[in-house]
Amino acid sequence: MKRSRFFEKNRPDLPFLLGIGIFWALFHFRVLFWHQTFVFLDCSRFFYPLWKWGSGVIHGGLLPLWNPDAGMGTPYLADPEMAVWYPPKILLYQWLNPTGAFTWLTLLHHLWLLGGFWFWSKGRGFSRPASFLGCLAFGFSANAVSLTWAPSMFFTCSWIPWVFGSAERLRQNRKGAWWGLSLSAALQMTAGYPVMAYLTWLALALEWLFRSGWEEQGRIAPAQWWKGAGALGVAALFAAAWALPFWEMTAFSNAHRRLDMADAMGPANLATWFNPFYLGHPLYSHPDAPFFVSVYLIGLPIVVLAFWGLGRGRGKASLPLGATLLVLSLGEKAAVGGWLKAFCPGYRWVARSGYWIPLVLFVTVGAALAGAERLMNPEESRGANPFSLWLALSLGVFGMALLGGVPWELPSFWAALLLLVLAGWKKVRTAWRWAFCLASLVLSLGPVVRSFHFTLDRSYYDERPALCGRLTAAGRIYQAPDFVDQYHVVSGNSVPDVYRRLKDLLIPDWPLAYGLEEVAYSNPIFLKEELHWYYAPLEVGPPVRRKILDYLNVRYVLGPVKEGPGPAPSFWENPEPQPKWFSVEKAEVSGSWKADEERYGAPTFDFSKDCLVADALKQGLYVRRKVWETSRTPNAVDLQAVGKGKALLVSSEWAYPGWWGGVKGCWRPLEAVNHDFRGLVLGPGETQAEVVYRPASFRLGCFLSLLAVVFWSGFGLDFLVGSRKRK
């Protein structure tokens, strides 16, 4: 009986929800029905290979805390963009193959974004036609569609309307609202781009402040503020399992230097409200700022409706909120950002002011829906001639688009303008006016987002590059810096041709998708000492270069790295690289990197026999032993070291907090050898050892995550018991 009442209550929504699904299916037609997938920019160069690598570890029954195959080892779970703690990603990679999981994650999150906006807009009291229009405007904005090129950012943004919708229910004292807000905020934090979740929370706090100050009915009681803060606090507890390891990683990574490279948008970016390609088309040019954080376009009709709503007295809090977020999206170029980082906790992580754009568009679409409701209201015809104002506003906005460089000969542009003008004509039936608004939006926004919705057949991921057939022996791949740099900007006969070429060349990260290991590692955040060893072969002569490549377990070199007289080859196979773990005869105390780099080049220094140690107590002579790995997982290595006497085992794998050596059931800290790598001292009679990654930060984070689950479970149980008592 209850289900039938629920169906009867929501049955009027079904045609609109079906319409949203149809638009979603039409937009993704090639992916749904032509066996294609998302490959543009970071999709293929970064996310696909690394996520596939991590899914393989999880399928083996382990949690990928560490990645030994990238950059001589790097934290994996601690990197938020790996989204290891994100339940939807875990589930889809368990159920589907890597390419299918990668594809459906983007598809379903786009549908989730559309559904979330419907949830939010209906909760704010907008009509079904207005909510439908808003779903298409926000869900198919140029920003939202371009974010699919950076999946973790897209997943995080898909939770924006759910967080705002749950917060609105909390303000209305609706049942289950606290649980909904906490859970949606937690999933947004773990979706892979936590800075977007942080900005969502800031924007939500600003909205509550402005509504309390500008709208009598929107006042937020102190108790609701405390409930909201508690919900977000429990969400942060759930995210602690990756957040604490990430916080630990920042001290050893390039994160602080990267934050100094702030990217603030200038006034020119504002022109993308009217012409998204004002700064260049992402498929055919190379804009200075990343396209997916620099484009405001949500369709010219939505801009007109937003101005109409604000100018006609609707959405009082939307104007100051939208203006504030817009200014924040310009960062230092609008004289904000720098000073905000000085006193706002955590704001220094907002390296790109364009991260605010999804929230700017969210608020703008909300103002546009208020304008659309006002436009369709019969009472609007009283007083001054509203159609004259509507016509002037429409012509003004579309005129700005022409001044911004939109080609005047586009038929869709003029058709969108005509339909939008008709939408404001009171003599037309209201249903038709809504239809005209919708058609105008589709004609204004559709051709734009379709023009850069780039996909390729799924075989692009599934087929191994031909070069893999030549890489049959164990060992790392060294992609020379010159080889990597020449592909930062690429050209070709077609966009598909360019992307197939990048994959076949095995530029950084691609080897990880096919079970290979690499020295180079393309990631916004990496261990800062990695660059020392990556560039070391280029800073020394050929004899020393060969010693370093041998020590780093490099089997293959891609790119122009000379080994002797004659031209530098583009492909070179090292016949005898050293293993990742071996035993040395002598250890000396290390000094500065520059001084030790000269010591490495001395004719008497042999990496297979000599090493440098950070601890002066460990210098001296050792007995060389025969060392081999008996087993290996991403988080552990079991070693066998046959021989007598005291031995020092040396590796070419990064030393990092959390790695421990276990000998005969006792755990001991590892030694730092050759500045940055792991070493382990074995006493006489100790022939077996295990080297395990067991970071305390992750264990503490797991405990805090479990606390969050306990909170949610207790709240859910209380809610169920209370519901039964009410019955």
- Bin the helical content: 40-55%
Radius of gyration equals 29 Å
Instruction: Kindly give the count of domains.
Output: 3
Backbone structural class: alpha+beta
Number of helices: 29
The oligomeric status of these chains comes to single chain
Explain briefly what this protein structure is.
By secondary structure, the protein is of the alpha+beta class. Helices cover 50% and strands 12% of the residues.
SSE inventory with pairings:
Blueprint lengths: L1 H9 L3 H14 L1 H5 L2 E3 L3 H18 L6 E2 L6 E2 L11 H9 L2 H26 L4 H12 L2 H5 L4 H7 L2 H12 L5 H14 L3 H21 L7 H17 L1 H11 L4 H5 L40 H12 L6 H13 L7 H6 L13 H20 L9 H18 L7 H13 L6 H22 L3 E3 L1 H4 L13 E4 L1 H5 L9 H10 L12 E2 L11 H6 L6 H10 L2 E5 L12 E3 L7 E4 L1 E4 L3 H8 L9 E4 L6 E2 L4 E8 L2 E7 L4 E8 L4 E5 L2 E4 L1 E3 L3 E6 L5 E6 L2 H31 L1
Parallel strand pairs: 5-6, 5-7, 10-11
Antiparallel strand pairs: 1-4, 2-3, 7-8, 9-15, 10-12, 13-14, 14-20, 15-19, 16-17, 16-20, 18-19
Helix pairs in contact: 2-6, 2-7, 5-6, 6-7, 6-9, 6-10, 7-19, 7-22, 10-11, 10-12, 11-12, 11-13, 12-17, 13-29, 14-29, 16-19, 16-20, 17-19, 20-21, 21-22
Structural key phrases:
alpha+beta; 3 domains; 4-stranded mixed sheet; 727 residues; 20 strands
